[in-house]
Amino acid sequence: VKRVYNFGKGKNDGDASMKSLLGGKGANLAEMCGIGLAVPPGFTITTETCRAFHNNDRTLPEGCWEDTLAALKVVEEEMGQKFGDAANPLLLSVRSGAAVSMPGMMDTVLNLGLSDNVVEGLAAKAGGRFAYDAYRRFLDMFGNVVMGVPHELFEEQLEAMKKEKGVEFDTDLSAEDMKEVAHRYKQVYVDQGTQFPDDPYDQLRASIYAVFDSWESDRAKVYRQVAKLTGLGGTAVNVQTMAFGNMGDTSATGVLFTRNPANGDKHLYGEYLMNAQGEDVVAGIRTPLHIDDMKAEMPQMYDELVRNCDLLERHYKEMQDIEFTIQEGKLFMLQCRTGKRTGMSAVKIAVAMVDEGLITPEEAVLKVDANHLDQLLHPQFEDEAAYKDRVVATGLPASPGASVGQVVFTADDAETMKASGHDVILVRKETSPEDVKGMHSSEGVVTQLGGMTSHAAVVARGWGKTCITGCGDLQIDEGNGSCRFGNTVVNEHDWISINGTTGEVIVGKCPLKQPEMVGDLGRFMHWVDQFRTMGVYTNADTPEDAAMARENGAEGIGLCRTEHMFFATEERIKTVRKMIVAQSKEDRVKALDELLPFQRSDFEGLFTAMDGLPVTIRLLDPPLHEFLPDGDMDEVVEMLARETGGKPADIAETIERLEELNPMLGFRGCRLAITYPEIAEMQARAILEAAVNVSKKGVKVQPDIMVPLIGTSAELKNQESLVRRMAEKVFEEKGTRVDYRVGTMIEIPRAALLADQVAETAEFFSFGTNDLTQMTFGYSRDDIGKFLQVYLDKGILQVDPFQVLDEEGVGQLIKMATEKGRATRPNLKVGLCGEQGGDPASVKFVYAVGLDYVSCSPFRVPIARLAAAQASV
Ligand code: PEP
Ligand code: MG
């Protein structure tokens, strides 16, 4: 097997299609060489080698080292330099790079190949100051990244040296001083019980090992877990000739996005530093300049950079994230990759690229991550002018949107608070890969340090979290559990609001509002619907939710949970309780008669809001005791006796009867209405009377009446004939008919297995994948939290099956039931209304199975629309 791939002008073995083998970085370096851009030559050791290394007890596979040396020879020839040769030294950088960009793995080692001997040669060629500075940087990075020697120990030595010499900046130290610093750095290794390897080949080998090891580091593993990255083999190693951005005033180094990653504007967006090495930009030692300043400072270089960016965008048809270095007036491209962006930016860029003729609308639809759309649908502040007097600090607008939460200072606190149901804003000096889980748990992040490309900014944008970085007015006093924004003290758990679009930090809670689908988003969603073939409905129980979902593009209601309607007012709940504790059918019917007008008017509202679209109404589902108040049994009984006029002893007995050991498998769903037919009769009457009433006013109604939780076709037959009897009664009374259908939820495995029988009665199926998942796995929906994290940590589950549909198991039932159902009734309408209906991967799966629609919460409707469109193009 080929394990080492050269990239460069002469020998270029790879290209962008080889990302899984060469990693994203390696594949793109080869691609850039292929299209003729100036890239310092080097080579990539494959991701498969990383896997082999770990499978083989941390040893390189046979022949790999020899292949590495051969690839190095090619680089030496192209450069006319020799690795480890003091007379004409070749220096290298070593970096990790998996198929998917992934923080948490090994950072960069620069200037590899220097030793006490080689540095003298470099000094003779490039000057002592430059050479010893490069050497001590290498000793620091190599020590820290490869040998695990803490960076601070080196930093201490440098600070001590500056003190001794009475200077403020590194740049004020002389060549001799730097030589001495390098000498002391080597002693740091010894003090830490190790040794700096003088042989450059030992350095190279150790660095390759370190990259492979970093794949299995805790940080990398946590990141893969949080980002749900599975199925990756390992990381590649990229070894590349050094380009020096620190060779004086004609040299520079920088990072940029070809368009604004926060809002999508077509304008280079990034930072650079004159006379500096790559790490200086990220480390924040000096404040980088905006890339626009380069136009005046280095006009020629700027023009060339713009040309390269243009070329890369046209080549990849994607916004690019670029690293470059200018060495003595020559521009080198060090990295390019698809730029991470916010949802807002993603939509804007996709639309702009269509207008620029770069891509087709169809391609545009594929360029926006459906989950990313979520961000655009997230709240903004209702009134930005209203809070201006409460703005206590302003930082960089690193990731847009608005969020409100309670202040926490550590990632752990963020996780704990979130777990107990609180919204939090994580406030930190800066963030590191260890903080990613806590960031995930936060509504937003504020950091004191860092720029638009700092860790916090990049991670937050990727997840669509609001983020403000570089908030210079922020001082954190973690020990005291407080911080200051300017002069304002904010304590832990105090509420703040942050505006990631403007960078403003506001004390207190600011009201949020829902965004609208206009402008670019409107155009984009229009394309989405052009390509989409599967329907997207919504789960809604109120006319308000239904109207909102319709704004978001819902094409019907896929699930109205009628029990939710009873919770709307205290009066309704009381009436429901009367029904539950009724001691006779007569009493129960009386209570139901009181409920009827409420239900009817609710349904009228729903039908009206969804004029012309199907409305799927499910008959009562949950266990009855859910409607009873919590608390001390005696008090509850007394209260119910008062409310209903019943006898306390009878009520106590009724409640006792309702108590269940396993309510999810208990007296719920159609079991209720089969036992007490009067409940379903009332609901059927309310639905059909409402349908007739509004249709008389000109509203187009399409009621789909849905029976929950059936396991046998006899259950469905029982309820179906009840509904049809009631329908005839209503139509006769009203003197008008409306069309309606009777169908069922498929949420018990038995119903899926016998779907052919069920379809003899059912005119439609809706997969209730919450219950279907619960009963297929045998995991209680309400208790999975007790062991889910363990299962994820141990890799027993990859994802929460209640969020992402289990294609293998539950998916098989869906597929089979759909086929069986349609074998009986070819025009059977089939949908899905569990939580997974708003998850893009699940939407794509059920599209492939051939479902007619998915139904999800109003908020996720646009996401499901995009996922459905992507499935069909
Ligand atoms: C389901 O079980 O998937 C469903 C939609 O019903 P509910 O969540 O109300 O049980
Ligand atoms: Mg259910």
What does this structure look like?
The protein is built from 35 helices and 33 strands. 46% of the residues lie in helices and 18% in strands. The model has no long low-confidence stretch (mean pLDDT 92). By secondary structure, it is α/β, with parallel strands linked by helices. Strand 11 and strand 12 form a beta hairpin. Helix 19 packs across helix 35, helix 22 runs antiparallel to helix 23 and helix 23 runs parallel beside helix 27. The strands form 7 sheets. An 8-stranded mixed sheet has the order 14-24-23-16-17-18-19-15. It is elongated. The site of phosphoenolpyruvate (PEP) has 10 residues, from strand 27 and helix 31. Belongs to the PEP-utilizing enzyme family. This is Pyruvate, phosphate dikinase. Keywords: ATP-binding, Kinase, Magnesium, Metal-binding, Nucleotide-binding, Transferase. InterPro entries: ATP_grasp_subdomain_1, PEP-util_enz_mobile_dom, PEP_util_AS, PEP_util_C, PEP_util_CS, Phosphohistidine_dom_sf, PPDK_AMP/ATP-bd, Pyruvate_phosphate_dikinase. It catalyses: pyruvate + phosphate + ATP = phosphoenolpyruvate + AMP + diphosphate + H(+).
